[in-house]
């Protein structure tokens, strides 16, 4: 656990040092769980969003986009169940005076069991070498099976208790597991209570006439209330999807782990409308499709797993998370939910407007069922960034810090260097920058020795460094250095665009997927 914490501290520190993420309002000592994306962070975030959008909308002829407003009529949230049921179970420690989510305390306890399993696997791998069969080991080792069963039983009990709103049993479970306050170790807990997560605000010029509103806690409802508008104007036929990205706001009880859990965050969601009775088939298909998309980023298949929900939301008949191995353990990255027809029927009831689809194949109207895919953009940013940050031992006995971001997502695709700041080399380098900047985000760097510039770009995640030297003046060629391998090749300036494009083109990455 200490090693994980050290790695996570490095991630947070590196994100600030290299212009990815800053604490919001830092000069005023910051605002808890609110962050700003800096010059490199905003580019990485944009690229992740664009990669998702192209694969979700551009690559599907039956999925279209939407950008709904953050402010919505307050009845929207009554219909969706958020006013009455959008709660988290909170618990206070009487000694440390710290507040926690009760379910997260229990999940973290199970996470420690998972860490034990991982440790056991690594020991066995070391012991058996090439003969090691991981799947067989996980399925047969007594200790591993015991920890697995214990973790599953704990989560099942918690899920059932939360579903029945048996908060006394949630507290009892915490006490039985002897879970202490992460800060003080104290096991002196209050009762568990429900806490609504929505931020309230007002709309209107005067206090007397102002309407009570909420900052949206999710983006999905903007899709549901626009279902019929999109279907009719786009002449969409079932099955079809509506996708959108945008900000959501939740007054988290315990916002922590850097940008993993924030009060202002961004979602990338797609609601897929299907014929009733086909939702299970589409649910399974989207689970497979979304995992394949994540794996396409090259972060390692072993870093993903599915977690099927024991506790289902009031609107769902099936739900699963794609979990990712963050520096602090496996945590939810994306949710896939079969939402039934709850949302459209609820908005029909509260609005008095029909939200049905006439199916020409069946010759009848019905309320479509919905399969949702919802990924947190900030969490995906953290997954990509934390996985990419590596310390490498080099052959000469030194080490380098390198941010091995997927090239398609890297903020800056290439840095162009003049070997020295004279003899006409800066002019040639700047001309290369001017030629490439119409196609790629590139930068010019002439400060320090070339070796230091390489290290700086490695740490910033730039896939290519291009060096202009004295030979360039004669042969119109430059040295291209690859970030991941540190390999250097001599290439004509005229080929630079094709070389970079081959590695960073979204079209090429999506075709491979």
The tally of helices reads 18
Strand order of the largest sheet: 3-9-10-16-13-12-11
CATH architecture of the largest domain: 2-Layer Sandwich
How many beta-strand elements? 23
Mean pLDDT: 92
**Overall CATH class of the largest domain:** Alpha Beta
In the CATH hierarchy, the third-tier topology of the largest domain is known as BirA Bifunctional Protein, domain 2
Q: Please mark out the parts with pLDDT under 50 across 5 or more consecutive residues, or reply none.
A: none
Task: Give the CA-CA distance, first to last residue.
Answer: 34 Å
Helix content: 40-55%
User: Strand count, sense and closure of the main sheet?
Assistant: 7 strands, mixed
Structural class: alpha+beta
**At the fourth CATH level, what is the homologous superfamily of the largest domain?**
Bira Bifunctional Protein, Domain 2
Shape: globular
Gyration radius, in Å: 26 Å
Strand content: 15-25%
The number of distinct structural domains comes to: 3
State the oligomer. single chain
């Amino acid at each position: 656990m200490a090693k994980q914490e050290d790695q996570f501290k490095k991630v947070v520190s590196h994100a600030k040092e290299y212009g990815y993420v800053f604490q919001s309002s830092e000069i005023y000592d910051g605002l808890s769980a609110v962050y700003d994306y800096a010059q490199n962070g905003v580019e990485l975030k944009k690229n992740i969003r664009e990669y998702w959008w192209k694969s979700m909308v551009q690559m599907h002829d039956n999925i279209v986009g939407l950008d709904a407003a953050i402010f919505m009529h307050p009845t929207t949230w009554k219909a969706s169940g958020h006013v009455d049921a959008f709660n988290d179970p909170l618990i206070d420690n009487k000694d440390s005076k710290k507040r926690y989510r009760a379910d997260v305390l229990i999940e973290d306890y199970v996470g420690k069991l998972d860490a034990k399993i991982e440790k056991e696997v690594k020991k066995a791998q070391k012991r058996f070498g090439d003969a090691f069969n991981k799947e067989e080991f996980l399925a047969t080792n007594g200790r591993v099976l015991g920890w697995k069963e214990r973790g599953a039983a704990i989560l099942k009990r918690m899920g059932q208790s939360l579903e029945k709103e048996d908060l006394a049993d949630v507290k009892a479970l915490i006490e039985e597991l002897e879970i202490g306050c992460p800060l003080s170790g104290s096991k002196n807990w209050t009762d568990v209570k429900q806490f609504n997560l929505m931020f309230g605000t007002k709309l209107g010029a005067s206090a007397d006439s102002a309407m009570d509103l909420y900052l949206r806690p999710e983006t999905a409802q903007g899709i549901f209330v626009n279902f019929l508008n999109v279907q009719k104007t786009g002449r969409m036929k079932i099955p079809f999807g509506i996708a959108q990205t945008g900000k959501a706001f939740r007054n988290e009880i315990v916002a922590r782990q850097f940008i993993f859990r924030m009060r202002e965050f961004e979602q990338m969601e797609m609601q897929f409308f299907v014929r009733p009775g086909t939702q299970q088939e589409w649910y399974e298909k989207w689970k497979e499709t979304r995992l394949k998309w994540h794996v396409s980023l090259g972060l390692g298949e072993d870093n993903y797993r599915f977690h099927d929900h024991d506790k289902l939301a009031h609107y769902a008949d099936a739900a699963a998370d794609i979990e990712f191995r963050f520096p602090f353990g496996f945590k939810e990255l994306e949710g896939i939910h079969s939402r039934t027809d709850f949302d459209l029927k609820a908005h029909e009831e509260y609005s008095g407007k029909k939200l049905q689809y006439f199916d020409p194949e069946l010759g009848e109207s019905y309320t479509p069922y919905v399969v949702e895919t919802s990924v947190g953009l900030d969490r995906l940013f953290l997954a990509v960034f934390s996985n990419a940050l590596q310390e490498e031992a080099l052959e000469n006995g030194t080490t380098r810090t390198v941010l091995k971001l997927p090239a398609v997502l890297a903020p800056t695709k290439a840095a162009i260097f003049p070997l020295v700041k004279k003899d006409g080399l800066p002019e040639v380098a700047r001309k290369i920058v001017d030629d490439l900047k119409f196609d790629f985000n590139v930068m010019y760097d002439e400060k320090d020795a070339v070796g230091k510039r390489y290290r700086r770009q490695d740490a910033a995640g730039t896939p290519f460094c291009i060096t202009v030297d004295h030979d360039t003046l004669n042969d119109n060629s430059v040295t291209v250095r690859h970030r991941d391998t540190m390999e250097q090749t001599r290439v004509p300036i005229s080929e630079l665009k094709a070389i970079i494009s081959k590695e960073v083109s979204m079209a090429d990455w999506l075709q491979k997927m």
